[in-house]
Amino acid sequence: MSEVLSTVANRFESGATLTHQSAKAALSAGLQRISAGATGVDCTPLAQFDSSALAVFLAWQRAAQARGVKFEIVNLPAGLASLAQAYGVDTLVCRPELAL
């Protein structure tokens, strides 16, 4: 999980991989960023993923919501967006105006 935080958009970048094996570390790193004020994640680097990525994104959204802020997931890979749609959580992780 990359620890890069964009000061302009207040987003951090996902790592290149977010699978069951890396989910716990990614979750923790993201929660730290959210508690420090991050309001979104940029998934541009994300190349390898499984359904665990969706669980992590939903947990990050809940954490941000608990802080009273909306959490944005941008540049979601098409394959992950399709997986979200298959699980019925696409409206939770995909912004409609960015639908693939």
UniProtKB/TrEMBL annotation:
It comes from the Bacteria. SUPFAM superfamilies: SpoIIaa-like. Pfam families: STAS_2 (PF13466). Residues 17-90 form the MlaB-like STAS domain. This is MlaB-like STAS domain-containing protein. It comes from Paraburkholderia fynbosensis.
